[in-house]
Write a structure and sequence with these properties.
homotetramer; about 240 residues; mainly alpha; Helix Hairpins; 11 helices; extended
C-alpha cells in the first residue's frame, strides 16, 4: 500500500493518472502559496492562505519521508538519509519561512517552491521546440561560458578603472560594479554615472566595446539554433 | 442592384475597380477620423471632422447591414445575425465613442478603426517580402510562444524577488512588474530602481541573464528568416 | 587647357594623379571648415578659418561653373543649366551659411559639405567588405523598407494610445512620438514616461512587442549578410 | 644555472612544470596587487599588500633583466637594450605607481599588470571555443573595422548636428559626443538630452538609424561565427 502511495505522490510518473492529478494539485498549491508574496499588508485571507499552504507542504514533506525507502532504495537507511537529500532540504527550506516569520527577505525562501514547480514542468519536456532550445543551450554551453567569463571580466575591469578615476561618484567598489553592469547591459537607469571628462571618456569606450561583447552571445545562440534546426531537418530527410 | 452595391462596399474585391476606390476613400476617412486624437483642445474644425467622419461611419455601418444577406449568405436570418458578427461589433465600437463623449480614455475605441484599415491592407499581402515575414512569424509561432512564456515568467520571478527584497521601493506588485519589464527590455527610464545592496545585486543578475533571454527571440526570428529565404531559393531552383 | 583643368578638379578620376591630390586637398578643406562648428565662442582663429574655407569653396564653385560644358556635355547651354544641377545647388548651400551669418541652426548647412566628402569616399568603394555591406543593404532594401514602415507605424500607434491615455504627461502629440521613439529604441532617457497604471501597462506591452520589431531588421541584415558571403564564396568556387 | 632560472621565470613554457608554478604565483600576486584598488581608505593591511606586491614586482623585474641575454638573444648588448623593450617598459609602469604615490588616477597604471596576467592566459588558447571566437574576430577584422569607422562617423555627425542645434544643452562639443555615444549605444542615462523640438526630432532620427548601425556588427559576428563552425565541421567531415 505504501508503494502505491509513493507512486501517487512521486512527480513525473506519466502513465500513472492519479499521480498526474497530485502533480497538478501541487502546482496549484505552490502558485497559491506565492499569492501572499504579491501584497504588502497581510490580510486575514492572505494569512489563512499562508497557513493552509504551509500545512499542505508539511503533510507532503512527511509523506515523502514515510516513502523514503522507495525514493532512495537503500532499505531502512533511507529513512535516516532522506532528510539530507537535496530535494528534502529544498522542501524543508520552503516550509521554514512560515515557522520563523523572521523578516521580509527571509520570505523569499518561498520562491524555492518554484523549483518544485519546475520539477513538474519536466513533463512538458517532450515538446519539440523546448528540446531544440535546451539543445542549443547544452551544445553551446562552453561557448556561452567563455562569453560569460569574458563579459564578467569586462564588467570588472570597467568598474575597476572608473572606480579609481572617479572615487567621488562611487561610494564603494560594489557601486562601480553596479554601474558597469547597468551600463553594459544598456539598461542605463541614470541613477549613477561618471561626471568628469576622463570618466565620461572611459564610459564611452566601455559602452562602444560593450556592444560587441553583447553581440557575441546573441550570435552564438543564433548560430546554435540554426545548426540545431539544420540537424533536425537532415535527420528527418535521411530517414525518408 | 443591392448585390452590386455589396460588391462596391465590400473590401478586398481586387478585380472590382470601383470597390477599390471605396476602400481608398474609407482609409482616408479612417485616417481623417484619427486627426482629432492628435490634439488636446477640440477646435471647431476638429469637432466638425469628428462629426463628418462619425456620419460616414454610421452610413457605412447601415449600408453593410442592408447588404448583410450577401455577407453572411444565410438569407433573411442574416439581417438579424449581422449586428452580432465580429466585424459589425468592431464597427459599432468605432462609432460609439462619438455618441457617448464620456471621457478621454474612451476616445481610444477609435483606434479600433485602424483594424478596418488593416483589412484593406490585406490587398498588399501579395508582396514577396511581407509574405516571407509573415511566414517566419507563422512557422516560428511555437518557438516564439515558448520564448514569450519564458520571458514573461522571468519578468514575473524577477519582480517577485525584488518586491520582497525592497518593499519600500515598490508601492505595489504592479510597480515591481513595471520595473522588471522596463529593466529587462533595457529601456531603463530610471523612474524606479533598487537602492539596497541586495536589490542592486539582484538587478545585476536579472539584467545579465535578461540579455540572453532577449537574444533568444532575435535568434529565432533570424534563423526562421534565413530558412524561409533558403526555401524560396530552393523552390525556384527546382523549378528550373 | 580648360579640359585638363576639368579633369583636375573633377573627383573620382582614379587614373589622374593630380586630380587625386585636388580631392585630398578638398577633403582637408571640408574637414577644416567643420572645425569652427565644434566651438561655441568664435575666436579670431576660427573666424579666419571660416573665411579661408569660404573663399576656397567660392573658387571651387566658380571653377566648376567655368568647366560646366565638360560636366553636363550640353555645349553652351551647360553654363546656364549648371547652377540648377543637384551638385551645384548643394555646393551653393555650403557657401550660403557664411554670407548670411543669420543664426546658429542655419550654420548646419555646412554639414552638407560632408556630402561632398562622401563623393570622394566613392574612391574607396572597390574594397570587398564595403561592397558586401552595400550589397546587403541594396538586396534587402525592400525588406528593410517594410520593416521601417512597420516600426514607424508601431511608434505612431503607441504614441497615439499613450497620448490619449495620459494627456497630462505629454504636452503635445510630438512629445508622445518622442516618448515612443526613445522607448522602443530602448534608449530610455527617463525625461518623459507614463505615470498612471493604464499608461504603465501600455508602456510594458509596447516595450515587449517593440523588442520583436527591433529584432526584425537585425535578422534581415544578418540573413542578407550571410547570403552575400555564401554568394561570394560560391562564385569563387565555381571559377576554380 | 642562469639559463635554468630564465626557463623558470619565463611564462608560456608549457612543458616546464616549475615555470607553470611561477606563472600561477605571479597571477596570484597580480590579482593581490589589485585588491587595494578596490577600496577607498588605505588600511594598514592594504598598505602592506601594496608594499609586498611592489617588492615582488621589483624582484621579478630585476630577475628578468639579469636573464636579458636569453630573452633578446643579442649577447651582452641585451642587458643594455632590455629596459627599452615593450615588456620591460610595461613592467616598469606597473612598479612606478607605488614609488610616486602621486594621485589616484595615476594608481591606474597598476591595471597594466593585467596585461601580464593576459600573457599567462595565452596558455589556455588551445581551447576549441576560444580559437573559434578569436578566428571570427580575425577573419571579420576588416568588416568590423569598417563598421567601427561607420559607427564612429555616425556618432560624430550626430554630435555635430545636435551641438549646433542646441548649444545651450551641451557645454562643449565633448558633451555632444558623450550624448551621441550614450544615446546610440541605447544606454541612455538621461543626464543629458535634447530639449528643443528640432533637437528631439534629430534625436529620434539618430536613434532609429542607430539601431540599424548597431545591428550591423551583431550580424557580422553572427555570420562569421556560423561560417567558422561550418568550416570546422567540413574540415572534420573531409578527414573521415
Amino acid at each position: 500500500m505504501r508503494k502505491q502511495f509513493y507512486h501517487f505522490i512521486e512527480s513525473g510518473q506519466i502513465h500513472h493518472k492519479k499521480s498526474k492529478y497530485y502533480d497538478y494539485g501541487m502546482i496549484a498549491i505552490i502558485l497559491l502559496s506565492i499569492v501572499p508574496l504579491l501584497f504588502k499588508q497581510q490580510t486575514p485571507l492572505l494569512s489563512s492562505i499562508d497557513t493552509l499552504t504551509f500545512l499542505v507542504f508539511v503533510v507532503d514533506y512527511l509523506c515523502r519521508w514515510l516513502t523514503a525507502d522507495f525514493i532512495l532504495k537503500r532499505g531502512r537507511m533511507s529513512f535516516l538519509l532522506y532528510p539530507f537529500s537535496l530535494m528534502a532540504i529544498l522542501d524543508l527550506l520552503c516550509i521554514l519561512p512560515y515557522i520563523s516569520l523572521l523578516n521580509n527577505s527571509f520570505k523569499l525562501l518561498k520562491v524555492i517552491r518554484m523549483i518544485r514547480a519546475l520539477r513538474v514542468i519536466k513533463l512538458f519536456r517532450y515538446s519539440k521546440n523546448i528540446r531544440i532550445i535546451t539543445n542549443v543551450l547544452k551544445h553551446q554551453k562552453d561557448a556561452l561560458l567563455i562569453v560569460g567569463v569574458l563579459a564578467t571580466s569586462y564588467i570588472f575591469v570597467s568598474a575597476l578603472i572608473l572606480f579609481n578615476i572617479e572615487p567621488d561618484t562611487f561610494p564603494s567598489f560594489f557601486d562601480a560594479i553596479y554601474w558597469a553592469t547597468i551600463s553594459l547591459t544598456t539598461v542605463g537607469y541614470g541613477d549613477i554615472y561618471a561626471t568628469s571628462i576622463l570618466g565620461k571618456t572611459m564610459t564611452m569606450i566601455s559602452a562602444l566595446v560593450g556592444i560587441a561583447i553583447v553581440a557575441l552571445p546573441a550570435g552564438i545562440i543564433t548560430a546554435g539554433y540554426m545548426e540545431e534546426i539544420a540537424k533536425t531537418q537532415n535527420g528527418s530527410q535521411e530517414r525518408t
